[in-house]
Design a protein that fits this description.
Blueprint: H1 17-31, H2 38-45, H3 49-52, H4 59-70, H5 86-102, H6 107-112, H7 119-134, H8 139-163, H9 172-183, H10 187-196, H11 201-220
Helix pairs in contact: 1-4, 5-7, 5-8, 5-11, 7-8, 8-11, 9-10
DNA-binding region: 37-56
Domain HTH tetR-type: 14-74
GO molecular function: DNA-binding transcription factor activity; transcription cis-regulatory region binding
């Protein structure tokens, strides 16, 4: 016998947009983007697939909402004005975006395939553009810098997650690349193989980010 304060046994939790989103993210982490279907999500929620369309008209709408949820709080990484110079604040934003996408299996694939205009995504963009405008960059320069930083970060993370697939301790392409280079006549690639096949993706990311920031300094001058 149940009490008024306890849930009725066998009754599924009430469907809501928030619960649907969280369950979708859980399934993404568990099985990856390719296995995430509306039917599988509905089964996990204990509802008919048609019930999901109350909140998301299409799967693309669901993915866009998932991408928006992933980047919650990323905009705050810039910190207040005066908390480091502009390059430090931009770097923090880029690192926070990468960290947010890495927090979910195939996170970069989900984000790259959507064009969210939600407050989390726009907040990140506004923070980065604002940091640069405050530093004296023109509006056009700040906007293009946003694209450059975001595209580099998402693209890098996309490749990072593709290389480090769940269940593989080493990047799946590293061994193939090593064999192909060593089997041919590529002396320069052979010399650079330790870096080319390195699993230190943070080092790769930081190197590229430093190049971007150095380039922006040249534009600022």
């Amino acid at each position: 016998m149940t009490t008024p304060s306890s849930p009725t046994r066998g009754r599924p939790a009430r469907l809501s947009q928030d619960r649907t989103l969280q369950t979708a993210l859980d399934l993404l982490d568990e099985a990856g983007l390719d296995a995430l279907t509306m039917r599988r999500l509905a089964d996990a929620l204990g509802v008919q697939a048609g019930a999901l369309y109350r909140y998301f008209a299409t799967k693309q709408d669901l993915l866009t909402a998932m991408a928006e949820r992933m980047v919650g709080g990323v905009a705050d990484a810039a910190g207040p004005r005066g908390d480091g110079d502009w390059s430090q604040r931009v770097a923090r934003l880029a690192r926070a975006l990468r960290t947010a996408l890495l927090a979910h299996r195939d996170g970069a694939r989900v984000f790259a395939g959507t064009h969210s205009t939600g407050p989390n995504t726009l907040g990140f963009a506004d923070s980065l553009v604002g940091v640069l405008r405050e530093a004296g960059f023109g509006d056009g320069e700040a906007a293009r810098a946003l694209y450059s930083v975001a595209n580099f970060t998402v693209g890098h993370t996309l490749e990072e997650q593709a290389a480090l697939r769940p269940g593989n301790e080493e990047p799946t392409d590293a061994g193939v690349l090593h064999e192909a280079v060593m089997a041919g006549t590529y002396p320069h690639l052979a010399a650079a193989l330790p870096a080319l096949t390195s699993t230190d993706f943070t080092a790769h990311f930081e190197f590229g980010l430093r190049l971007l920031l150095d380039g922006l300094r040249a534009v600022q001058r």
